[in-house]
Here is the input.
Amino acid sequence: MVDLDLYSVRRRYEPGGPEALAGVSAVIRSGEFVAIEGPSGGGKSTLLNTLGLLDSPDAGTYSIDGIDAMSASPGRLAELRSDTFAFVFQSFHLLDRRPVVDSVELGLLYRAVTPSERRNAALAALAAVGLSAFADKRAADLSGGERQRVAIARALATNAPVLVADEPTGNLDSANSQRIVESLRSVHERGATVVLVTHSPEVAAEAERRLTMNDGQLTERGATPPGRDLPEVPAPAGRASRLRLRDLLADARASVLSRAGRTAGLVAAVAVGVALAVATLGISASASSQVADTFDAHANRAVTASWGDGDLSPAADVDGMPARLRALAGVDAVGIVTDHGGVDVQASPRRPMLQAGGYSTEDAGLSATDASIRWADGHPRALDNGEVVIGRNLAAQLELAGVDARPAITVAGRRAIVVGVLRSSSRIPTLTGSVLLPTSAGLPAESSQVYAFVTVRPGAAQQVASQVSLAIDPYTPSAVAVDAPPDPSTLRADIQSDVRSTLLAFTGLAVLASVVGLGNSMVLSVLERRAEFGLRRAVGARPVHISGLVLAESSIIGAIGGLAGLAVGVAGILGITIARQWIPVFDLRLAPLAVLGGMAIGALGGVLAAARASRILPHEALRQ
Here is the structure.
């Protein structure tokens, strides 16, 4: 049996404002049916919130069966609410999107009662108020009277010794109001104490004891009636203000599924970040493999050696040099090209003389320069004495006829037939504005620069480069300048690292945007559900239970988003690699990491919302 004892309790909401409770003293004995009347703003709801431990007074004393509620910790207050009180509100405060039975079970959820026991107690309570057939209906689909009877069933399910009802008939017609009053009377007949706030004299007349609140003062109408012998209310099942982890997760799952539209939007926000991360890592791995193949097939195969005319030792065997270079391990081809500097070129005696670069080489040099040449029709594609290949830019300046006509020009005072036009050369780009003759032509020059263009097998560039100068001139190798590409593995790793870093940076931004977007949406969701969280606090939930629920919901959303993002990311990898004709590479470890990553995004996004939810005060939230 529970007695409620208030003495000189005061409550003021604003400094200097009126007192909602101005030294209120009252004793409510176990088993009483008490109605509190009075005008709006007189302090009725404040008194009721104080009695139900939903609000804390500024001064005075309040004891519940001898326990000092004024000095109790938040956790102890949650236990007292769970052990002592059940609530019925004017605005019903049900879990509108979930089955009716979930709302009735709520008080038992926070007493660590097993799911089967909760369900049986909830169904029995619904039967007691005549709503057995509505157990699986959505609470939002019920009428006002039915919703209020569900709230009373919630009180019955917990066997709370005190039922606190704030304007339970305020939004109902007379017929439904009468049913609610009868239900309250039935609760009282079972042995519970009923404390009722009402504007209705007819409803108040049903109570055994009537109190009036006006301007923060409490007065009693008539003498306190003698107590009656009522059955003792059975002790509530379970343990006060306790929540099992499995029940928390099940509750969070049901809450997430009950808001399909909002959940889909939140899942999409997480999925975008996870999909980008999965696609980035997968495409990066696929591209890395492709880059490796490309490097092995095409890159890092060019080694160039150069020296000036007269720089080599007189003892060096220049004629045998190409053969020595070809004999080096890893060498595929060798071409010697000599740069003679500027030479005079003229299309005809009537045309002006032009200065152009003059180069000479043997047939191997043409292929070694990686030159693209348009040869005259029927030409054997090899230079002979009296023949030249000129660059396309020089040909345009000379205004030559087509190469198939084999026009004649003068080079350094010597007549030559143009048998080809060089369109490009990756190793000597200046050839497009130059003239190329066979080595046997013996172009005169004051000084010249000689190049040995060596083409090597993939991966052999560094090895060949270290031997080239000795192969050219074993006596004075320092006279030879060697240019080799960087080590392919290092270059490839650098490129892959740069690409991967860039992609990961963009992915990081996408994940951050997902966290921020989810966090903002979760905070908005908490604001929309203030009344629900206030109700949960009223029936015994601690702040940690509320924050745990929000974090569990956001983590579930994150896990679903992680799975969706994984599917989208894998589809993206397949789509891009197939379009690029690459071999897709996917690390199977990404699958669990994607789900865990989604949960991490969800948890991070839910931190702020969880903190906001845990700070919700029940008396403020339940005013809605």
